[in-house]
Amino acid sequence: MDELSPEVQLRQRLMLAGEVSPRSPFALDWSGAREAAVLLAVMQREAGSTVLLTRRSDELPHHAGQISLPGGRVEAGDKSVVDTALREAMEEVGLAANRVETLGHFGPFQTGTGFIVHTVLGLVAEPPLLTPDPREVADVVELPLAVALDPCAYQPHLLRRGERTYSGFAIDFEGHRIWGATACILRCLMESTLRAER
Are the CB atoms for 183 and 8 separated by under 8 Å? Predict the structure, then answer.
């Protein structure tokens, strides 16, 4: 891969990453499952590629203030989980679907809140000016891809659901703590790209 341009290398890494599923401490449960989709968009910036994240509005009833990937529930009008992820990215931060080159998706991931999440992998070659919807998004956070792909960036983090405690991971970046499903999905990207390079 040394002779390939950085853009081609990145595209290949993302396509290979789409062959795996994030590891969840919760078993997949399709009975009465609520499905959602998120967009893991790699933004190709001149200063280096980043992963698009959002800080959820403090006014939201669920997961207020948390760092997450753009996404939401699968709705009846969505033709696929890709459509869901792209629609939500447009609604949340104004990222139009035609600016995203989709390269595949991770397998389903069970969250502790009862959702089964599908992660769509995308590449944004010329990132536009983003316009977050203040009703849903307090701020846009771009995590350097180099940080997301660094195994040392992931620190142990305990998740509590009811009376049970589960082991997970978290990334601390510029005053933000990225944890839960978002950290699991980013860690899956890291692990899959490391395997692809071996």
Answer: no
- The alpha-helical segments, DSSP class H, found in 18-117 are 81-93
Q: Rounded to an integer, what distance in angstroms lies between the CA atom of residue 62 and that of residue 102?
A: 28
Residues 6+ apart with CB under 8 A from 40: 51, 69, 106, 119, 120, 121, 122, 185, 186, 189
- The alpha-helical segments, DSSP class H, found in the chain are 6-17, 81-93, 145-148, 180-197
The distance in angstroms from the start CA to the end CA of the chain is: 11
Structural contact between residues 68 and 56, judged by C-beta atoms closer than 8 angstroms: yes
Hey, what are 180's tokens?
């839960």
Residue-wise pLDDT tens digits, 82-106: 999 999 999 999 999 999 999 888 8
Q: Which residues contact 111 (CB under 8 A, 6 or more apart)?
A: 24, 26, 117, 180, 181
Q: What is the pLDDT of residue 18?
A: 57
How far apart CA 28 and CA 30 sit, in angstroms, is 6
Which is nearest to 39 in space by CA: 1, 76, 93? Answer: 93
Could you tell me the two tokens for 75?
């709705």
